[in-house]
Amino acid sequence: MRVSGAVVVIAVLDGGSGAGLARRFTAAGAAGVLIADQHVGVAEDLATELDRPGCPVVGVGGDIRRPSDIAALVDTAEKHLGSIDLFCVAGPDGERIVSLADLPDHLDLERLAELLALVGEAIGEVVPPQRCPAEPTAKAA
User: Using CA atoms, how far apart are residues 25 and 4, in angstroms rounded to an integer?
Assistant: First the structure.
C-alpha cells in the first residue's frame, strides 16, 4: 500500500481512535488526511494538531454508518484534498484500510454504492459482534 502522496480519509467509530492512524499517515508522507469522528470537536482538534504544509489535515464530524455522511465526507475530501486513495475505518476492535485504487477519480452514484459496501465490510471487521440474548429455556414442570 502506497501512502506517500496519498489522500486518506479516516472515519472513527464510537470506541475507536483515529489519532494513531492519522499520525502514521502524516509521518509517511500522505498528501492530505481527512478525519471524521462522531464526537464533535475531536477530529477538528486532531486536525489542528497535525495540519502542516504539504499535508493538510481536515477534521469533520460525521457517522459513517449513515450513507449521507459518507457522501458528505467524500465531497469534503475531494473539495479540500483531491481524489481519495485510502479510506480507513477505526473502531473499538482495530482498524481497516480500504484502497480505492480500483475506483475512478470521480465517485458517481454507482461507485459511491461500491464504496458504501466496502465501508460496511470494514465496519463489520472493526466492531465487536453483537451478542444476541440467550433464548429463554422452557422449564420442566
Answer: 8
CB 103 within 8 A of CB 117: no
With beta carbons less than 8 A apart as the criterion, state whether 100 and 107 touch: no
How far is it between the farthest Cα atoms of the chain? 75
Mean per-residue pLDDT over the chain, rounded:
81
Closest-CA residue to 25 (of 1, 2, 41, 3)? 3
* Cell output for 37: 469522528
- Sorting pLDDT into bands at 50, 70 and 90, what band is 111? low
Residue written as grid cell 475531536: 42
Over residues 3-29, the pLDDT tens digits come to 899 999 999 988 888 999 999 999 999
Instruction: Count Cβ atoms below 10 Å from residue 7 Cβ, excluding itself.
Output: 23
Which backbone phi and psi does 33 adopt, to 5 degrees?
-135, 135
Tens-place pLDDT, residues 121-135 = 777 766 665 543 444
Say whether 141 sits in a helix, a strand or coil: coil
